[in-house]
Amino acid sequence: PAPVTPATPPATPPAHPTGDTPVHRPRITVGDDTCTIAGFTNTHVQAAVDRLAWLGGGTVELSPGTFHMADSLHLRTGVRVVGQGDATVLRKNPMKQARITSFLGYGHHDVIVDQPDLFELGEGVLLGDAKAGGFYQGVGTLVARQGATWLIDRPHPHDFRQESDAFVKTLFAVVSAVDVTDAGVERLAIDGNPEQNETMNGCRGAGFFAHRAHRIIARDVTVRRFNGEGFGFQTCDATELDRCLAEDCSGNGFHPGSGSTRFHIHHCTARRCGASGLFYCLAVRHGVLEDCTFEHNAGHGVSIGERDTDHINRRLVIRHNGGAGVYLRPGDAATAAHRNTITQCTIGHNAADKGEAEIVLQGAADGVRLIENVIRRQAGKPGVLVKADMPAFEQRGNEIEPGGEGAVVDERRL
User: Fold this and answer.
1) Beta partners for 241?
2) Could you read off the pLDDT of 329-360 as tens digits, one per residue?
3) E strand spans, 250-325
4) Please, are residues 237 and 215 in contact by the beta-carbon 8 Å criterion?
5) What's the per-residue H, E or C state across 92-129?
6) What phi, psi does 118 have (nearest 5°)?
7) Given the DSSP bridges, would you call strands 214-224 and 240-242 parallel, antiparallel or unpaired?
8) Average of per-residue pLDDT across 59-82
9) Beta bridge partners of 385
10) What angle do CA 323, 266, 84 make, to 5 degrees?
11) d(Cα 345, Cα 326) in Å, to the nearest integer?
C-alpha cells in the first residue's frame, strides 16, 4: 500500500479554557462493594496501584474501612493512594516468626526456616541475625516456594547464619516507597498493631517509609502505635510530609534518614513517641522543617547530629519532651551539625527526664543561628546550655523565661 503521510501538527496547540491542556488520569476505587475492586487487604490495594503504574499513573481511592496488611502497600511511580481520612485505616497483621536453619548468602533470594508452613505467599518479611543491624537486615516479599524453601523478591544484603540466631519475621513498613518517583499517599491512618508486633529497625521500615525515592509526598497521614519510627525516609530527595501525625510510636516520630536531601516537613506533629519527636540522621542536608509540633516525646524534641547541615528549623512548638527541646549531638569539625538555623520557635518545659536544657549546643558546629525564639525554662534547667567545644554562633532576639541567673549557661567561659 501507498505510504501514509502523517498530518502536520498545528503550530500552536488549541487552548484549553483554563489556559492549560487537561490531563485525565485514570482512577480505581478499592474497598467496599461499591468499588472497582472490592476487598480490604493489601493485595486488593496493590492490584490497583500496580495496574495504574502500568497505565502511566493515576489515583487509587480507598473507601472507609480497615485494610488488613500482610505486606507493605508498595507505592509506584506516578500513583497516588487517597483514603477518607481517619475512616480509612491500614492495620498491620500480627507478626509471625521462624528461625533460619541454613546459611543464607549475600545476594541470594532463598529463605530456609524451621517452620516453612507458617508463612503465606505475598507476606512481607524482615531477615536478620545477631550480627546484622541497620541496613544489613533484609526486607522483601515472599514470592515463591520450592518445597521447604521460600524465595524473596530482594537479594539478601548480608550473610545470615543459623549459628548467629538468624530469624525471619513478618515485619515491614505499612506504606513503602522504594526506588520510585512522584508518588504519594494521602488522607488515611496507619495502625501498627503493637500488641502483636515487635519493634522494626528504622533503617528498614517505619509506619510510612521511603528509600532511594524522589519527590514522595505523604499528606494528612496519621501513624499510630507503630513499634518503630512513625515516618522515616532514607537516601531520598525532595520528600514532603504535610499535616502528618506520629502518635504513640515506640521510636522517633519523624526520621529524615541517612543521606537524604531537600526535604520539606511542615504542619506535622509527633506526640508521645518513645524516642525523639524528630531525629535528623546521618548527612541529612538542606531541609526545611517548619510549623510543626513535637510534644510529650520520651527523647529530645528535635535532635540534630552527624553531618546534618544547612537546615532551617522555624516556627516549631517544642514542649514537654523528656530530653532537650533542641539538641545538637556532639561531633568534631568533620561530623558536626553545621549551618543549622533555629528561628521563631516556642520551646518550653522540656528536659523533664534526661535533658540538660531547653536547647543544648555542642560539637564543632559552625554557622549555627539561634534567632527570635521564645524559651520557657524547665525548673532548675538552663534555657540554653553551650558546651565547651561549641564555636561562636549567632544569637539574637531570643526571649528566655525566667531570665536572670542560669538562663544561659556557657561552659566556654568556665
Assistant:
1) 218, 265
2) 999 999 999 999 999 999 999 998 889 999 99
3) 254-256, 264-266, 269-271, 278-279, 288-290, 293-295, 302-304, 311-314, 317-319
4) yes
5) ECCCCEEEECCCECCCCCEEEECCHHHCCCCCEEEEEC
6) -70, -30
7) parallel
8) 98
9) 360, 409
10) 110
11) 10
For residue 184, the Cα-to-chain-centroid distance in whole angstroms is 13
Grid coordinates 544561659 are at which residue?
Answer: 408
Cα–Cα distance for residue pair 266/244, rounded to 1 Å: 8
Q: What amino acid occupies position 154? A: R
Q: H or E element: which one contains 340?
A: strand 340-343
Grid look-up 472490592 returns 38
pLDDT at 25: 80
pLDDT in tens, 224-258: 999 999 999 999 999 999 999 999 999 999 999 99
CA distance 231 to 299: 16
CB atoms within 10 A of CB 118: 13
Q: Which residues contact 116 (CB under 8 A, 6 or more apart)?
A: 98, 145, 148, 149, 150
Q: Which residue type is seen at 316?
A: L
Distance CA 254, CA 233 (A): 9
Region 15-29 average pLDDT? 64
Phi and psi, residue 50, nearest 5°: -70, -35
Q: Pairing mode, if any, of strands 124-128 and 167-169?
A: antiparallel
- What is the side-by-side order of every strand in the sheet holding 97-99? 97-99, 167-169, 124-128, 138-146, 149-152, 110-112
Strand partners, 318: 294, 347
Q: What are the CA-CA distances from residue 14 to residues 11, 17, 18, 224, 309 (Å)? A: 9, 10, 12, 49, 47
Q: What amino acid occupies position 367? A: G
**pTM for the structure as a whole:** 0.92
| 264, three cell numbers | 520539606
Q: Classify residue 238 as exposed, middle or buried by CB count within 10 Å of its CB (0-12, 13-18, 19+).
A: middle
pLDDT value of position 72: 98
Place 21 in a pLDDT band, splitting at 50, 70 and 90.
low
Average pLDDT over residues 23-29: 84
Overall average pLDDT of the 385-396 stretch: 96
Q: How far apart are CA 340 and CA 360, in angstroms?
A: 13
Strands 302-304 and 311-314: unpaired
Contact indicator for 242, 219 with CB cutoff of 8 Å: yes
Helix (H) or strand (E) holding 19: none
Distance, CA of 154 to CA of 167 (rounded, Å): 16
